[in-house]
Design goal:
By secondary structure, the protein is α/β, with parallel strands linked by helices. It contains 10 helices and 12 strands.
């Protein structure tokens, strides 16, 4: 795959490009004492638009931040001033946490050129680069969505693949959650993991807020017994870090990776879903 990352030096040199849009894709766990939009308003990369992961979603679904229908997505991001032909650069204020979810979302909807800022907001700030406060409003644009169905799978598909073993399933949650040693952060969910899935915690993929090298990532997948030459489904708590795991797999050379959008929030809430602990 092409390098999905851009450096802070590159972004600083291209901030004024007319066909570039910067998105703050920050999102935090429900039990985190942080408000991503409030942080954005208090200071962000100049010209950056806040991408609300919970808002640009299927708001009719009982599950959090599920992909919206392509036409609805096109309307929402067009209103934010984003066209499918632009270079879209995404960052978050953790370093590399929720930005890959936004990256994956735009690729699933057919955007031409989607990148992630290496090191994210923390690296930008550590280098004492400029920030601005308040809301950025861009002129409306036209986003022509072209949905890539191969990038996403639903409950029925995951259940079938869990039963027949035809596709590998990798879970990005911390080991304690995967093994049901601690309760899930969302109330009402059973603890455990999808039968036949393999745990590769997302925390193992990064170092100092940046993705490890493709060679290091390939080693991690191999150590977990995941064959990247075969199809792979990634999952997590609610579809956020599953996208980071999908990004890591693609960087390591995987040709076929799909994200289980509902992830454990869906699986753990369904009484018809088998669970291993």
């Amino acid at each position: 795959m092409n390098d999905p990352f851009v450096t802070t030096d590159w972004l600083a040199a291209h901030l004024s490009d007319p066909d570039l849009v910067v998105l703050d894709g920050s999102w935090h766990m429900p039990n985190a004492a942080r408000n991503a939009q409030a942080d954005y308003l208090a200071g962000h990369i100049p010209g950056a638009v806040f991408f609300d992961i919970d808002g640009v979603a299927d708001t009719d679904s009982p599950l959090p931040h599920m992909l919206p229908a392509p036409a609805a997505f096109a309307r929402m991001v067009g209103a934010l001033g984003i066209a499918d032909t632009m270079t879209i650069v995404i960052y978050d204020e953790i370093g590399l946490f929720s930005a890959p979810r936004v990256w994956w979302t735009f690729l699933a909807m057919g955007a031409r050129d989607v990148r992630i800022l290496a090191g994210g907001g923390p690296k930008w700030r550590a280098e004492r680069r400029p920030t601005e406060v308040g809301l950025v409003a861009r002129p409306r644009q036209t986003f022509q969505a072209r949905f890539d169905a191969a990038r996403v799978v639903d409950f029925d598909t995951v259940r079938a693949r869990s039963q027949d073993g035809a596709v590998q399933i990798a879970d990005a949650r911390p080991a304690q959650r995967f093994h049901a040693e601690v309760p899930e952060p969302r109330k009402g969910l059973r603890a455990g993991h999808i039968p036949g899935s393999t745990n590769l915690p997302v925390s193992m993929l990064t170092e100092a807020g940046q993705m490890k090298s493709p060679e290091q990532l390939a080693t991690l997948f191999a150590e977990r017994g995941i064959d990247l030459s075969k199809p792979l489904i990634t999952t997590c708590g609610s579809g956020i870090t599953a996208a980071t795991l999908a990004l890591a797999a693609e960087l390591a050379g995987a040709p076929s990776v799909a994200v289980y959008d509902g992830s454990w929030t869906e699986w753990g809430s369904r009484t018809d879903a088998e669970i291993e602990t």
